[in-house]
Amino acid sequence: MSQFPLLSSPVKLGSMLLKNRMMTTSMSPGHDYTNEEGQPTLRFYNYLEERAAGGTALICQTICFYPRLKSQLDHLHPLPLGYADEHLPHLSKMAEVVHKHGGLLVGQPYAVHDWKPAPEDKEEYWGPSTLSVSKHSPQPMTKEHIRIFKENIVQCCITLQKAGWDGVEVMAGVGGILNRFMSPATNDRTDEYGGSLENRCRLTVEVMAEIKKACGEDYPMIVRWSPVDFIKGSLTMEESLQIVKILEEAGAVLHNLAPGWHETSVPLTIKDVPEGYWSWISEEIKKVAKVPVATAYRNTDPFSMEEILAKDKADVIAGLRYNIADPEFAKKVMEGRPEDINKCICCCRCLDDVISQGKPLNYCGVNPRLGEELETPLAQAKQSKKVMVIGSGPGGLAAAVTAARRGHKVTIYERGPRLGGCLVMSAIFSPIYDRLNTYYKTLLRKHPEVKVNLNTAVTPALVTREKPDAVVVAIGGHPIDLKVPGAEGGNVVKSHDFLELLNGNPPQKPGIINKVMYNCGSVFLKFFYTPDLARTFMGKFPWPLGKKIAIIGGGLPGCELAKEMMHYGRELVIIEEKKKIGHDVGGSDRFHIVSAFKKSPRVTMETLTKVKAITRAGVEVVHEDGSEAFHQAKTVAVTLGFEKNMELAEALKGRVSEVYAVGDCSNPARMADATKAGYKAACQI
């Protein structure tokens, strides 16, 4: 019997039969996936095909449904154009690459924020009225605008049907135009499109009726909507339960539920949200729904997905990030290989780049094959080479596995007692990051041809003796030191002290208690370490982190430490020279992390502040205006991040014909950057 009998089972959505219960939600991958003519590029076709070949039952894709002038296309959010016969060739090809692998493709006319009623107009933020829940004040739609808007959507649906797409999705959620008509928080109209719930849903119902009239009764219509939106004065669950009936009578074959709006301040997708959390919403909707219901957001684990279906909380699992992380997620589920899934670690790099910053989908914390890498299949090397990979963090592991897949003979050298590099420490503060380490351990166990040497510090002399053809240096960056009086005191803890402790190397600190504790701790953790154990030890034991902690550096490392210590009631002061705490934290996480700090009576944030000196009692600081202050602290934690660490790579040049430096040692950045750099280096060998 399959481990995932429900997740692997077919489901019918109107006239569409899905081969399993896994579908993607819609997103535009951004620039370079769509060209200046509004056509998908090879990168986009390959992105779709990889996921269809990976067993995804249904792919939903955003489409531009209104005319755009060619002169405007390179300045606008790039979407494939899909509203005229001239777009049929590329739309048909998109359907082709999905259909040839047994997948289904539906198009979503992207009616979220901007629209324009005429080709020559500028795209603007439109809505039923000027009422707003964000900094944008909508352009109120007249009856004539409404007519044009409906015509645009219907014409897009006709075009998609001609191109062989399997259905359409009506976007009536996440604070989009139709959603703003539905919500009393953004709709104060007094005509037939405002007031009562029936009137507020009228535009969505009319859109669906006209699609049905143009495309036929049997052409499937999914509806993406937000029954719980966390917008003050908006929809209640009581109203949402009534909307279910309204949408089904209008022809919906699936309720694709999206919690919240884009403007919502409640965390929706970050790693702190529990796995499968939002299925409570689909569970409520299912109580009255007569057609299938999909749950979305924070579904990244197949066991949780199966449980949601088994408890009848949803009929379909919708999501995007699990599918970005591993295009073969569905295939591995159906084949009963969950251990082989490269699970999303919810770092939100994809969302931060594409949605928050308008960048293309080039980076993922666990999957390097995005962006330009999609344009070329991973090719076998012309000649098998002996490859040394020095360091087993995300960059080193990506390089090792990729090089081995290309046919090279690979050996990993790790100076610590376990694989993972920085992942070993990161998993203490973000337990979900241990997924990536577990994935690579499983992969290496199944591929013993990749050799692993632990507890091995690599020197130029060792490399000379081993005589590799190529070396990938992935040893991480140098921690940035704080150069002030007292920085070497016994009450000062540096970020690398933790990693050295976990690696069995006791940091050399003054004081008899430090010597005893660091030595005992390093021996114990070398053999018995788990992220949970280290987290518990660090949080509940008042050493090396005391009850009052001054954190020097308010970037990502400092924020992660502070966030964890908040759970244990520590008194914290975060001291940062820049203007913002969390200046390098991804946009999806930063707001929620900093908000939590602001709300906590135990956390003080000092920005534009420099450390003057450290004493046994705390930290002396000086503010930008020249004023000075003193913060009492039992422990001073230095979390200033990393700088380049190129000494080993430079020393190997001339000894080895090919030397590649990847990850923080060459470019201190985020995990996704290291993963990508490791993959690219291995492709060059």
Q: How would you describe the overall organization of this protein?
A:
- This protein has three domains: 11-115 and 140-374, TIM Barrel, CATH 3.20.20; 386-477 and 644-684, Rossmann fold, CATH 3.40.50; 523-642, FAD/NAD(P)-binding domain (3-Layer(bba) Sandwich).
- Helix content is 35%, strand content 17%.
- Strands 3-13-12-11-10-9-5-4 form an eight-stranded parallel sheet.
- The model has no long low-confidence stretch (mean pLDDT 94).
Radius of gyration: 27 Å
Proportion of helical residues: 25-40%
CATH superfamily of the largest domain: Aldolase class I
Can you tell me the CATH architecture of the largest domain? Alpha-Beta Barrel
Task: Note poorly predicted spans.
Answer: none
By secondary-structure content and strand pairing, the structural class works out as: alpha/beta
Distance between the termini: 43 Å
Strand order of the largest sheet: 3-13-12-11-10-9-5-4
Q: Strand percentage, roughly?
A: 15-25%
Q: Please provide the count of β strands.
A: 28
Mean pLDDT over the full residue set: 94
Number of domains: 3
Characterize the main sheet.
Answer: 8 strands, parallel
Tell me, what's the shape? Answer: globular
- The helix count comes to 23
What is the CATH C level class of the largest domain, in words?
Answer: Alpha Beta
What is the CATH fold-level name of the largest domain? TIM Barrel
Family: In the N-terminal section; belongs to the NADH:flavin oxidoreductase/NADH oxidase family.
InterPro entries: Aldolase_TIM (IPR013785), FAD/NAD-bd_sf (IPR036188), FAD/NAD-binding_dom (IPR023753), NADH:flavin_oxidoreductase (IPR051793), OxRdtase_FMN_N (IPR001155)
GO molecular function, one term: metal ion binding
Pfam families: Oxidored_FMN, Pyr_redox_2
